[in-house]
Every structure is written in C-alpha cells, then in structure tokens.
Amino acid sequence: MTANDLAADRLAIRETVENWALWRDAGDWERFRTVWHADGWMTATWFQGPAEQFIAMSREGFERGVSILHFLGGFACDIAGSRAIAQTKMTINQRAPVEGVLCDVVCTGRFYDFFEKRVGRWGIVRRQPIYEKDRLDPVDPAAAPKLDAAHLARFPEGYRHLAYLQSKNGFEIKDGLPGRRGAAVEKLYAEGRAWLAGAAKPGEPL
Fold first, then answer.
1. pLDDT tens digit string along 57-114?
2. Mean pLDDT per segment of 10 residues, for the chain of length 206 residues?
3. Assessment of whether the complete model's pTM goes beyond 0.85
C-alpha cells in the first residue's frame, strides 16, 4: 500500500463517519444506509442490533419527534489491509422532558468503529460508542428538574444522565457499555486489535 493509497483510505473512512452523523440526524435514510455493510451492527444506550433495524427504529423516532443530534471532533484510524478501526470524538445531544422539565443532555465520548473494505467500498461492520461523561441542563435555566437519585445511580457514570432521560421517556437502557476506563473498554480495544489482525468477526457486539 502506497502513502497515497493509505491517505485515500483514511479519507474515505473519515467521510463515512461524517456521513453517518449528517445523514442520520437529517433523516436521509437511504443515504444513511450506504455507510453500513449489510451485516453491520449498532450498539447504543437504547438499541443493540442489526444496522437495518437501527435505521428503521431511528426513522420511527425521527418521525415522532425524538430529538437526538451528533457532533464530531478528532479522528484517528488504524488500517490493516482491507480492515480498519476508526475512533472519532463525538457528542450525543438529546432534548426531552425530564421530570416535567424540558432538558438537554450532552454526552461526550468516542465512536469506535470496525470497518472493512469490500468490493472497493469502506463500510461500517460494527459501531460501539464509548461513553466518557455527560451532563443534564434545563432548557430554561430558571427551571430545575428534581431527579430521582436512586434511579440516576442505576446507570454507569459515563452515560448516567443520558440513560436517565431516555429511560424516563420509554427507552430500555443497556447496562455495562464501555466508558473511559474499565474492563468493558479494555475488552473493546482487544477486539479491535484482533479485527485488524484478521479475526473472523468484529468481537462480540453488545
């Protein structure tokens, strides 16, 4: 692989990551579908399953007014032949009522993506967010929701407020997702190394 080939692959992977956020948040479902391979897998706080099902459920939520937006930051990518692991700094922003008060939750973390190049196209095989920290803010600064401390404490620190908001709005939340430190994220890193080394599958998707 030449330096130009490597640069072109990195650019294609980065563009795919950016398209994921833009097309998903814009509700451009047909183009959103193209960032995945057919066997792609998505894990989030509120969803774990095949990419096609994630697209359908995201569309359903979008059409009934669920407000979830994504913003991207720094990007790093390790490429080994036709495989890659991409990490992208991101925030997840969701707006919804919390205990009767309209609130925004901002969750900061990374998208950890298993990529593969098939028939000349890079696509996502597995996306696993890493949840590093979050916060909850009332849209009206004069209003403050009274949170249920016991319910809040049920959730991991990295996505505690996001999970609180989502669970209070009818979502079932997955526990034990990777955070900044700990066994779950170390396992994910090991799965990424194995993927680059030629493992038969992209780890054990959650």
1. 999 999 999 999 999 999 999 999 999 999 999 999 999 999 999 999 999 999 999 9
2. 91 98 98 98 98 98 96 98 98 97 98 98 98 97 95 97 97 96 98 98 94
3. yes
Which tokens go with 194?
């194995």
**Fold adopted by 3-196:** Nuclear Transport Factor 2; Chain: A, (3.10.450)
Helix, strand, coil % in the chain, rounded to nearest 5 = 35, 40, 25
Residue 116, H or E segment: strand 101-118
CA separation for the pair 125, 191 (Å, rounded): 13
The residues facing 85 across adjacent strands are 78, 114
| Domain range annotation of the chain | 3-196
Place of tokens 């696993």: 128
Q: So what's the pLDDT on residue 1?
A: 72
Q: Closest Cα partner for 73 from 90, 92, 94? A: 90
Strand partners for 42: 49, 127
Largest CA distance in the chain: 58
Whether residue 145 contacts residue 168, with contact meaning beta carbons closer than 8 Å, is answered with: no
